[in-house]
Amino acid sequence: MVAGFFARFAELVLPVLVPGAHVFIATTPVMSHLVYGPMIDAGFEKRGEIVRIVKTLRGGDRPKNAHDEYPNVCVMPRANWEPWGLFRKPLDGRVRDNLRRWGTGGLRRISDDVPFRDLIECGPARGYEREIADHPSLKPQSLMRQLVHASLPLGDGVVLDPFMGSGATIAAAAALGIESIGIEIDAEFYTQAALAIPQLAALDPPDAPRRL
């Protein structure tokens, strides 16, 4: 079911992206292969993984209904990281050709001296963020602004979030002065996101990129 969903998603999104555009997909250590395979099969290039160091899910606990019988057993490793698959639509020529024509093909550096890195240490969304956006998979602004900043190598273009949820991606783009489009099928979440986006964008989290 998961693989089929992402196969259809990849099939639909690939034609509408310009060459060299990147796609970031949050997943889990257990489910990532079901996401990555269909994206690659559809024609995307896998450009690595962004590893977010975070402890969010309970996971790795004792066998269900057998806690007392097997007190020293955990069913799987407790996840302390969150993988984000990074994919790119194939280039039209070389990276420099795509940068000149489309403004795509690479990732925006953190600074002149520091490239964008594939390891980000970032905790869960803070209480004050959850007071603004009550969504079960709310991502913190300190993370989303780093990803949004990296996604447009020249700072020009449009960020699309087709599963907007809490509106965190759109808020990050607004905070950085980047044009964005958010789509959300759930009417209740869409309404909540519309109210939350300007408030999330107004936050000033530590270690997050500033407005371009």
What are the defining features of this structure?
single chain; 212 residues; four-stranded mixed β-sheet; two-stranded parallel ribbon; 33% helix
Brief characterization of the structure:
The protein is built from 7 helices and 6 strands; from the N terminus they run αβαββαβααβαβα. It has helices at residues 2-13, 32-41, 95-101, 127-132, 141-151, 168-176, 187-201, and strands at residues 22-26, 45-53, 81-88, 119-121, 158-161, 179-182.
Task: Describe the fold and architecture.
- The chain has 212 residues and is α/β, with parallel strands linked by helices.
- 33% of the residues lie in helices and 16% in strands.
- The chain has helices at residues 2-13, 32-41, 95-101, 127-132, 141-151, 168-176, 187-201; strands at 22-26, 45-53, 81-88, 119-121, 158-161, 179-182.
- A four-stranded mixed β-sheet has the order 1-3-2-4, with helices on both faces. A two-stranded parallel sheet has the order 5-6.
- The longest helix is centred in the last third of the chain and has 15 residues, at 187-201.
- The model has no long low-confidence stretch (mean pLDDT 93).
Low-pLDDT stretches are: none
Strand content: 15-25%
**Secondary-structure element sequence?**
HEHEEHEHHEHEH
Rounded to an integer in angstroms, the radius of gyration calculated over CA atoms is 18 Å
Portion of residues in helices?
A: 25-40%
Instruction: Give the count of helical stretches.
Output: 7
Distance between the termini: 40 Å
Sequence of strands across the biggest β-sheet: 1-3-2-4
Overall mean pLDDT stands at 93
Number of strands: 6
